[in-house]
Amino acid sequence: MSGYLISLVPLLGINVILAMGLNVIAGFCGQISLGQAAFYGIGAYAAALLALAGWPLWIVLPVVTAVTGACGVAIGAVSLRVRDDFLAVTTIAVNFLFLGIVRKSAIMGGEVGLAGIPASGLGQYGFVALVAGLVIATVTLCLYIKSSWLGFAFVSIAEDEHAARAIAIPVPAFKLAAFFIGSAMSGLAGVLYCYYARFITPDAFNFLVSVSILAMVVIGGIGSVWGVFAGAILLTLFPEIIRFAGEYRQLIYGAMLVLVMRFSPGGLAGIISAGALKGRFGRHRRVTA
Amino acid sequence: MYYIDLGMQGLVYGSMYALMALGLTLIYGLMRVLHIAHAAVFTLGAYIGVVATNVTGSLWIGFPAAIIVSALTGVLVYKLIYAPLLSRPPLVPLVASVGLLILFEDVFRIAFGNLGLSFESNPYLYMTVTIGSLSIGVLQLAMLASAAIILTGFGLFVSLSRTGIAWRATLANPQMATTFGVNIPQVHCINFAIGSALAGVAGVLIALLNNYVEPDMGMVVSYKALAIIVLGGLGSMQGALIGGLLLGVAESFGTVFLTDIFDRDAIAAVCLIAALMLRPEGLLKQRAT
């Protein structure tokens, strides 16, 4: 495999894990988060600071994942007070707040960012294997959650919170659980990014990153694990495929978001399941937001 | 004296935010769409204002041209993108809107260059008026005055004209409004035209004030305008007005006193989160205005 392709694999893995994390919060549990880049950034910065302090990868990985999950619970506590569009805007605000603090913080390198992060110590192939293993673990966990009782509780909250409460589902606890799992995954992606890039700046975690994570989930088909997986792969490779387009890349990316939403609001999973279910179940399978 | 200047500066920016937020809150109130691409219309207005003024040599042609183009763009966006998506879950128009903002940003970059533009001659830039012991720029004064005139006129329009009454009827109960002969798609169209025209006005005023426009000037404004409409209570016009002015003042004081902790863009986030913790339904309770 050429060096270019092998350097692309960790990036694919990182984006898949990010998209999976948002899918747990927004897809399964119905809580729209437009600030995933903040958790991604918290993970990356925490990992960078610990790595610079001399901690090895095997300790940084679980510690940072857990800490980011805990941060997610704190933000999730906000989601208990606001919902729907209020929540979407509040999470955008969380993203800008994170950037604002990082940019002014001397410990976190301010605008310049943190450089000189030590290597993972696994070698290039070892690191790729680690990322691949974690992607498999994340996807398996998502598939398991979706078929478990926890997943059913999430879906019931996404469909109708009051009805969920009426059948004795403790809504706040489950929302916080969704935020913990989703944010921990974003934090994990952040750790991997930190060891992958070995140089992090605030701009790697800005609002556009949150948007592209959301785009992966929505274009893939929100709530569907394999749809989101495909969406993350597609949107990560897309800028590479259209590299020939040069300065028109962003234009094409934006146009694609608009067109997919305009003509296939259910995303990729929507197209496929509409084809598979055509004539058998009709259209009662609605994709929930 | 210094504090009065700061407060004045805050009110000037606050009135720009109020103009932006007013259009946004109207669109949200009627259609439940978080119209992030509103900021693209704002940037478009600014660019058209600068380009048309430079070509014709007169601001009196550039300003109306910017307003007309903004209004038409708003209507087109509604007709082509939002109208077919209104029955979908709210995430769908939201992602389409973000795609539109990204797309527009690149269109400006490609059409007008990376570096941004300035007015060739901006005679008002350094003119000041002295009121008592207070000296204030002509443009700042024009900004405050035009915002006050437009917002008052708009308030009268909504409360007195037939179109305004149809708006309020649609806001209160769309189905009932239809039975009374209100043409809802037409109401939406006019709403988009006026909201977008307001964004265009805000764009030209900011272009005059900074004597500079750049492709990504809308990104941060879009988030702040969203924060304001949530702060004010989604769909509330008075809330958007008060929220805009408050944020402007909070930012101008915040940049002086809080500069070591976070940057200017994070202040809106802090205000928003604090306000939501105290009053989850926004500063003013949502009601049909």
Structure description:
Chain A has 289 residues and is mostly helical. Chain A has one domain. Chain A is built from twelve helices and no strands. Chain A is globular and about 55 Å long. With 289 residues, chain B is an all-alpha fold. Chain B has one domain. Chain B has helices spanning 2-31, 38-56, 59-82, 91-112, 138-160, 162-172, 174-179, 184-210, 217-231, 237-257, 264-278, and strands at 128-131, 134-137. Chain B has a two-stranded antiparallel sheet. In chain B, helix 5 packs across helix 6. Chain B is globular. Classes of the chains: A mainly alpha (289), B mainly alpha (289). Chains A and B meet through helix 4, helix 9 and helix 11 of A and helix 4, helix 9 and helix 11 of B.
Write the layout of secondary structure elements.
The complex is a heterodimer of chains A (289) and B (289).
Chain A: H1 3-28, H2 36-52, H3 57-79, H4 84-104, H5 123-147, H6 149-159, H7 161-166, H8 171-197, H9 207-220, H10 225-241, H11 249-263, H12 267-277
Chain B: H1 2-31, H2 38-56, H3 59-82, H4 91-112, E1 128-131, E2 134-137, H5 138-160, H6 162-172, H7 174-179, H8 184-210, H9 217-231, H10 237-257, H11 264-278
Antiparallel strand pairs in B: 1-2
